[in-house]
From TrEMBL, chain A:
Record keyword NAD present: no
Annotated signal peptide: 1-21
UniProt entry keywords in alphabetical sequence: Signal
Species of origin: Serinibacter salmoneus
Protein name: Carbohydrate ABC transporter substrate-binding protein (CUT1 family)
Keyword Ion transport appears in the UniProt entry: no
Compositional bias annotation for Low complexity: 38-47
Region described as Disordered: spans on this chain: 28-47
Any single Pfam family the record assigns to this protein: SBP_bac_1
Annotated InterPro entries: Bact_solute-bd_prot1, SBP
UniProtKB/TrEMBL annotation, chain B:
Entries under CDD domains matching the protein: TM_PBP2 (cd06261)
Record's keyword terms, sorted: Cell membrane, Membrane, Transmembrane, Transmembrane helix, Transport
Location of the ABC transmembrane type-1 domain: 75-285
Listed transmembrane segments: 21-45, 74-99, 111-129, 158-179, 264-285
The protein, known as: Carbohydrate ABC transporter membrane protein 1 (CUT1 family)
Transmembrane recorded as keyword: yes
Membrane topology designation: Multi-pass membrane protein
InterPro entries linked: ABC_transporter_permease, MetI-like, MetI-like_sf
Organism for this UniProt entry: Serinibacter salmoneus
GO annotation terms (biological process): transmembrane transport
Family of the protein in this entry: Belongs to the binding-protein-dependent transport system permease family.
Length: 443, 301
């Protein structure tokens, strides 16, 4: 025990030195972190809770903390904002070193489960009933581990949607495909017309996931990936996965993807640009890119140039075509290293603010899809109603909402998956090699 | 080194500043260099995913990482990058540096242009090149030249060469600067003598410039070797190690193992490997060039 503790100090020290070197500014939240031993916390009195948020598309979180701080100056949050990728790497080190903010922002899935297993986050089943009653159950389930609540959804649901360029479909006289056979037919049609059928941001790797996730689900149903999550031996050997990989490679060989897709980057939204500049006809992407379409090509998006639909069926597949994949939501968890007062503040913030009317309206005004029940009437009134209606309906009616595989798996297996999948798309390995490599990650 | 010189050095040391004056520097060195190094060595024998406490698992990280094809690939790629960088950067910077030391017309304007890449941060360079090389919206599309519309960073065979090119683009100015300084040190009398003997430009370059630059060559080569071995930021931004594992060199392999897969033990093994390879290389070079031969420059010429 003694050596173990000393070792963890060395480890934490090494990690934080590494972090300092990597980030330049290693800002740590002040009060909430070092009061974990309990004795010193009572004397101080100022129980400021803290939260780290990610910058980028949504002002939702920053605004909600501002409201809260105005109304509760005694229980104010200290908020710091980070870029998405930088945050992902920083938060884990902070949690491991016991320096996490009171509210830990996450994606649910394998990452949340690891926090729970290590006792880094606390059970907040009590005190969050109000907010969970407002949320669609399948989304709330993403924050529940072993029957207890460890995460509360805090953002839009992000189903993966098939976007298409309606003008191009008109130009070549084709119908939007609803089955996989039609996908292959329309691929040939577009290639004859000199237009790339699909855009995909290959260099970012994760857009490839959307393909294997939807295909596996349509062919074999959600049970196939559940077996992987349950660590069943050789779970990747399921024929549905091999068939999905084979279909992907058939599409690659039929020139289904835009030239040079291996160096298209999602960060720069180059994959979207290919669609609205008429170089590619279709694209699989999350619902979050809709607001970028609107910002970068407003006329095209609002005047019917941009089409959106669900992923096609695969003939004879076992999965329900209403199933969706994507990110169920983002989640707030409460750090076990925070002192009790800060934890209480965090729980009341979650229960009172998250997905109340104002929060939900703000999310809707950003074109987001709140995972909240009974929004149909309010959605009909907004400017982007046709898109939000589709996405909201997909989330509401989906029998199964599969969290993105890279988030659902433990980090090591997720990295292995992304690399192997990239090699599948680049025709560097065969489906069988993929299956063997991935089976090796199951412990 | 004779015995007399040794005792002379010892006498000087006795009269020099007290050794404890070095204490603050040594302290910083120990805290920021040695302690993390020891920490990494300890971590390489543990299993730790960044949460909770590391657990001692003996040498199994070592046997696992050393048997991992990804590690072999990373070592092989690192060697490739070092060799390609050397093959590309050394001759180019030598020629540029010697040219910049000359007296040609427009030389100064060109020197400033050549020097520019060194002033940009590598992240900015990487982002700029990424946009230029974009197959759909980059140089090829802008100029209408088809051969520029390659999938430069998306093809495993091409990505590494392109990466080396971008690295070289960044660092050739620095090495040319070294060569320029070296070339300016060469006494003009040697060239005048050669001219009298009827040597042409090529002979003067080959017979005088190159031999006179041998120490600059050693310095620059060492810097290229060690620099390309530890190269990280540019490749990270440019390709992220992809496509597949095509540009996943040792430092990236370490980073991705540690901070993407959260396998801190495995990443520590790679870190130690990197330290060993780097030390061996620079020590080897140092021995090859020889410190006593370095000294002799002042006595000769």
């Amino acid at each position: 025990m003694q050596t173990k503790r000393r070792l963890s100090v060395v480890a934490a020290l090494t990690a934080s030195i590494g972090l300092l070197a990597a980030c330049g500014s290693g800002v740590q939240p002040g009060e909430g972190s070092d009061a974990g031993d309990g004795e010193s916390s009572a004397a101080g009195g100022s129980a400021t809770a803290s939260a780290w948020i990610t910058t980028g598309s949504s002002a939702l979180w920053a605004d909600s903390f501002e409201w809260w701080n105005e109304q509760n100056p005694d229980e104010a949050f200290e908020v710091e904002a980070f870029a998405n990728d930088a945050y992902k790497e920083k938060i884990r080190t902070a949690v491991g070193a016991g320096n996490a903010p009171t509210l830990i922002f996450g994606w649910g899935g394998g990452g949340l489960k690891e926090y729970v297993d290590n006792g880094n986050v606390v059970d907040i089943t009590e005190g969050t009933q109000d907010v969970l009653d407002r949320v669609i159950p399948s989304v709330a389930a993403g924050g529940i581990v072993d029957g207890s609540v460890y995460g509360v959804p805090n953002a839009q649901s992000q189903p993966v949607i098939m976007y298409y360029n309606a003008e191009l479909f008109e130009q070549v006289g084709a119908e939007v495909p609803t089955t996989w056979d039609e996908v292959m037919e329309v691929t040939a049609t577009f290639n004859e017309a000199g237009i790339a059928p699909f855009s995909v941001a290959g260099q970012s790797k994760w857009p490839y996931l959307m393909w294997i996730q939807y295909l596996t689900d349509r062919i074999g149903g959600p049970e196939v990936f559940q077996a992987v999550l349950d660590n069943e031996p050789d779970a990747w050997s399921d024929p549905a996965i091999t068939e999905a990989l084979t279909k992907i490679q058939e599409l690659v060989e039929a020139d289904g993807f835009v030239d040079g897709y291996g160096s298209v980057v999602a960060d720069a939204n180059a994959d979207l640009a290919l669609l609205y500049t008429g170089r590619a006809a279709m694209m699989l992407q999350g619902s979050w890119v809709y607001s970028t379409f609107k910002a970068d090509a407003e006329e095209f998006t609002m005047d019917g140039g941009l089409g959106y639909t669900t992923f096609p069926e695969v003939e004879g597949g076992a999965g329900d075509p209403a199933n969706i994949v994507g990110n169920t939501s983002n989640y707030w968890s409460v750090s076990a290293d925070a002192d009790e007062a800060a934890q209480e503040t965090a729980v009341s913030y979650l229960n009172e603010i998250i997905f109340d009317e104002e929060y939900t309206d703000l999310l809707l005004s950003e074109g987001g899809v709140p995972p909240v029940t009974g929004l149909e009437d309010r959605i009909a009134e907004i400017e982007d109603s046709s898109f939000v209606e589709l996405a909201y309906g997909m989330v509401r009616d989906a029998p199964h909402f599969q969290l993105s595989w890279d988030q659902a798996l433990a980090p090591a297996a997720a990295q292995e998956l992304l690399t192997n999948l990239e090699n599948i798309f680049l025709l560097q390995i065969t489906p069988q090699e993929f299956v063997d490599n991935m089976n090796a990650t199951i412990e | 080194m004779t015995r007399g010189a040794g005792t002379g050095a010892a006498r000087r040391r006795r009269t020099g500043p007290a050794p404890w004056l070095a204490a603050p520097a040594l302290g910083f060195f120990a805290f920021f260099a040695l302690l993390p190094l020891v920490g990494v060595l300890v971590l390489s024998f543990t299993s730790w995913d960044g949460l909770g406490s590391p657990e001692f698992i003996g040498g199994s990280n070592w046997s696992r990482m050393l048997a991992d094809p990804l590690t072999h690939n990373a070592i092989w790629l690192s060697v490739k990058v070092v060799l390609l960088c050397l093959l590309f950067q050394a001759p180019a910077s030598l020629l540029l540096g010697v040219f910049m030391a000359g007296k040609q017309k427009w030389r100064e304007v060109l020197s400033i242009l050549y020097f520019l890449p060194l002033l940009f941060s590598s992240a900015a360079v990487a982002i700029a090149f990424k946009s230029l090389l974009d197959p759909n919206f980059g140089l090829g599309a802008a100029t209408g030249l088809d051969f520029l519309s390659q999938d430069w960073l998306g093809q495993p065979d091409l990505a590494l060469v392109v990466t080396v090119f971008v690295i070289s683009w960044c660092f050739i100015p620095f090495h040319s600067l070294l060569y320029q300084a070296g070339a300016r040190q060469i006494p003009t009398t040697m060239y005048e003598a050669a001219l009298l003997d009827g040597a042409n430009t090529w002979q003067r370059f080959w017979q005088i410039t190159i031999p006179q630059l041998r120490y600059t060559i050693v310095t620059s080569t060492t810097l290229i070797l060690v620099g390309s071995l530890t190269y990280f930021d540019l490749i990270y931004v440019l390709t992220g190690g992809g496509p597949g594992d095509a540009t996943r060199i040792l430092p990236l392999h370490m980073y991705l193992t540690g901070f993407r897969s959260f396998d801190m033990g495995g990443a520590s093994v790679v870190a130690v490997l990197l330290v060993v390879v780097g030390l061996t290389m620079s020590l080897g070079l140092n021995r090859m060039s020889g410190s006593h031969r370095m000294d002799s420059q002042q006595e000769g010429a």
